[in-house]
Structures are given as structure tokens and as C-alpha cells.
Amino acid sequence: MQKPHLIEFPKLGASDIGYISVGEANGLIPFTVERTFWTYFTPESIVRGRHAHHATEQVLVAMAGRIIVTTEMPDGEVQTFVLESPHVGVYVPPNAWHTMQYSHTAVQLVFASTRYNEQDYIRQYETFRQVWGAK
Predict the structure, then answer these.
(1) CB 103 within 8 A of CB 48
(2) Taking every annotated instance into account, which residue ranges of this chain make up the domain Sugar 3,4-ketoisomerase QdtA cupin (predicted)?
(3) 7 with 29: CB under 8 angstroms?
(4) DSSP string, 4-56
(5) What is the block-wise mean pLDDT of the chain (135 residues), using blocks of 10 residues?
(6) Nearest to 75 by CA among 95, 57, 93
(7) DSSP string across 73-87
(8) In the chain, at which end, N or C, are there fewer CB atoms within 10 A of the end residue's CB?
């Protein structure tokens, strides 16, 4: 079972000309990307996420601003990741309960392994503990 971990994408360029970072198929993202989405203008008082997935794997990247990602694994291990550089992302496996809190200027880019399917979401924490605690 994979655990949440940071992924550092290449940071090519220099401060005087700017940078580019690249994620390619069969590269640093450990799955085939089926969906990409982004969130922005989230008030700092809002905590998003609060769910896990049955099957979807994700990589979350703070394209701007700061995002605090907290993950909990079925064994109770909790990790906190602070994303504030657009060349660093966090891998979130399907069995991780996760939350995100944003600075107001944050723009989050998400690479997902599946298309949107509401049945893939576990939105109740108690259900997450039941589903993944029994595995």
C-alpha cells in the first residue's frame, strides 16, 4: 500500500528568465492521468477535501499560494504537507483521508487517475474507518 509522499518535479530555468516544470506520462506521477482540475479563490477559513477515495489516486500541486494538506492512513498515521512551490506536489493514494486548507491566493492543480465518479468518494469519516480499517 502506497503512502502519501512528496513528488519534486524538475525545476528548469533560472530566476532571471523564469522556470518550467514538467510532468510526463510514465514519469514522476505514478499513474496515468485521466482527469485534471484546479481550485482557486478558496477562503482561508474553509477546509476542503474531507474525503477519501476507493480507487482514485491524486497528485496535488500548489501552483500559487500555500496549501496545507493533511492525510490520514487506515492505520491512523497522520502526515501534514505544506505545498508552496509549483514544482512540488503530494501524492495521495486512494485509501487516504485528506483535507486541504488554502491561503486566499492559492491555486491548486490536481492530477487524478480516474474520471469523476461520485461512487468513488468516501465522504463520511466513519465510513472511511469502516471501509479501510477492514482491509
Answers:
(1) no
(2) 4-131
(3) yes
(4) -EEEE---EEETTTEEE----TTSSSSS---EEEEEE---TT-EEEEEEESS-
(5) 92 93 84 95 94 96 98 94 97 96 96 96 92 65
(6) 95
(7) -TT--EEEEEE-STT
(8) C
Structure confidence at residue 124 (pLDDT) = 94
pLDDT at site 130: 86
Whole-number Å distance between alpha carbons of 50 and 72: 10
Q: Identity (one letter) of the amino acid at 97?
A: W
Q: What is the pLDDT of residues 89-120, one digit of tens each?
A: 999 999 999 999 999 999 999 999 999 999 99
Instruction: Please name which of 132, 36, 124 lies closest in space to residue 93, comparing C-alpha atoms.
Output: 132
For this structure, is 51 an active site residue?
yes
User: What is the pTM (predicted TM-score) of this model?
Assistant: 0.92
Catalytic residue among 51, 53, 54, 104: 51
